[in-house]
Amino acid sequence: MLTVTAGDAVTLVFPILVNGEYATPDAGTVTYSLRDNLGALISAQTDVALSNVGTDAFVNIDASYNTKVLKTELRTAILKFFVNGYPYQITQAYRIADWLNITASPDDVRTLFAFSRTELPDEAIDFYESYLILDNQLGGTVLSDALSSGTIKAKYANDALAYRAAFDLLPSAPLRALRKEAVGTSSYERFSHVDFDDLHDKIVGLLEEAILNITGITPTYPTMLVKGNRMDVIGGPYGALMVPRPYA
After folding, report:
1. Do 113 and 68 fall within a single domain?
2. Burial class for 72, CB neighbours closer than 10 Å (0-12, 13-18, 19+)
3. Residues with Cβ < 8 Å from 239, sequence gap 6 or more?
4. Containing structural domain, residue 81
């Protein structure tokens, strides 16, 4: 999910797609509305008309609508339009949160999988979700303190976020991995099938080590042992999270 820093404006891009194909909306039919954290319409942002819309609609949300009271809040933009007289609607949600003071990057996650940007684009990696999960599991201000410590713990905390983001992507990883990819006149092919069971275990091990380096406690981070349709969960002091492995 897109994360917008509280108090910042944002421009949302809506591809005008009808049955998976780009389309040009009927003139004068494109409007958008914005809903707040409770799902209520924001009066000044209801049925706002957009003009000169091609195959993409650009919705500019002013900073004043992106303030928050809670730790995180949700905003949902709804785009409505007609194509050849038929009505359509596209919804796009985003999260409002404080600035996430991290150095972990999408490239750190891609490196763990040896994926290209085509296989794992930036927008598929949700660091803020990883932060929320780890922050909840570690409790208190352990994670935020590590990130702002100015010590080696800051590195371990950023590593943990990258490993956690990779962990959350494991279920979809087999579907993302391309055996062969061509770019222009060049192409590459993987030498062998990726062992995602082994990769799972390595990522869990790296995450356990990072948490140990942050907290001094061996976490026995949740490890999924899947045989056929059976899934055993080994939990630790930070709780267990069941994520089936489709590649088992």
Report:
1. no
2. middle
3. 137, 222
4. 2-97
Q: Which tokens hold the place of 180?
A: 């062969």
* pLDDT for residue 245: 44
Over residues 146-177, the pLDDT tens digits come to: 999 999 999 999 999 999 999 999 988 888 87
* Burial of 122 per CB tally in 10 Å (0-12, 13-18, 19+): exposed
Q: What is the DSSP pairing of strand 2-5 with strand 86-97?
A: parallel
Q: In the predicted model, what is the mean pLDDT of residues 29-39?
A: 96
Of 53, 76, 97, the residue at which a domain comes to its end is 97
Same domain, 37 and 90: yes
Residue 47 lies in a domain: yes
Domain count of the fold of the chain: 2
- The larger pLDDT score, comparing residue 242 to residue 158, is at 158
In a domain, 85, yes or no: yes
